[in-house]
């Protein structure tokens, strides 16, 4: 039996992918949110060195093309396919999923990485949903639901398909998902930091409940990638808030005293959640620094009642039952 290494805070995505190269070999992987200068892009780049196919997504087709070109420049042998996907639109999610379902290949791993930038301004989507929750939870829920046939098509006696949710330590902040405002969001009850925390709590609950609901047919995991200064953090509002918290220096650079990770370090835990065979018997696990850290899950995110309630509410919102 192979012996796999222990990973640490400093471990990079490339190191994790190299350690699990045999597990990645032959796999078809879809990663949402793969813009350059983000952990989704770095995940795609390192996985593309070993995988059979990497499907990258984004709502901006030009930026998506730049990501593909950058990956292929670094990994000339990479088999990369672009998929335009706007997770803030349920209609667009259905269109993108229908395209994936025409692909000849099964899907071994789905990585729900994309998220909306947290902004103070309250914004509703065309579906009447709060933008952060739509992009980070409801859209991915529907997308995952529609891709279940593709995921199940990759299953064998030796392999269980995986779904990975990139959550955050923010899952442990606040009081969890507000089940009233998720269905009927209002500007009066909107706080953009709390909205972000709710989405990340929903990610953890989704991993727990998807693993349970599938009855062992799909293994789902969630994770905290670490504090990373990616493009999603480089808005004026985010920079101002992080300066006030001391996370950034007055001139806008990461403060070394706040345990920032580089993008390669930040993407490491995603790769581990997607491919570490040691997780096979731990569906629903939450990872930090590329290792299981279930003790770090907030009580409101480990509560099976909350998990099932979120599942049921989200099914009501999308108007479809999630079946396996």
**End-to-end separation:** 32 Å
Number of strands: 10
CATH superfamily: NAD(P)-binding Rossmann-like Domain
Number of helices, where a helix is a run of at least 4 consecutive DSSP H or I residues: 12
Q: Describe it for me?
A:
Helices cover 40% and strands 12% of the residues. The protein is an alpha/beta fold. The chain has one domain (13-230, 263-316): 3-Layer(aba) Sandwich (Rossmann fold), CATH 3.40.50.720. It has an eight-stranded mixed β-sheet, sandwiched between helices. A two-stranded parallel sheet has the order 7-8. The two termini are 32 Å apart. This is Short-chain dehydrogenase/reductase family protein. Keywords: Oxidoreductase. Belongs to the short-chain dehydrogenases/reductases (SDR) family.
List the helices and strands and how they pair.
Blueprint: H1 13-19, H2 21-24, E1 28-31, H3 39-47, E2 53-58, H4 61-74, E3 80-84, H5 90-100, E4 109-112, H6 131-152, E5 162-166, H7 192-213, E6 219-224, E7 227-228, H8 236-244, E8 260-261, H9 263-266, H10 268-275, E9 286-288, E10 291-292, H11 299-302, H12 304-318
Parallel strand pairs: 1-2, 1-4, 2-3, 4-5, 5-6, 6-9, 7-8
Antiparallel strand pairs: 9-10
Helix pairs in contact: 1-10, 5-6, 6-7, 7-12
InterPro entries: NAD(P)-bd_dom_sf, SDR_fam
Keywords: Oxidoreductase
GO molecular function: oxidoreductase activity
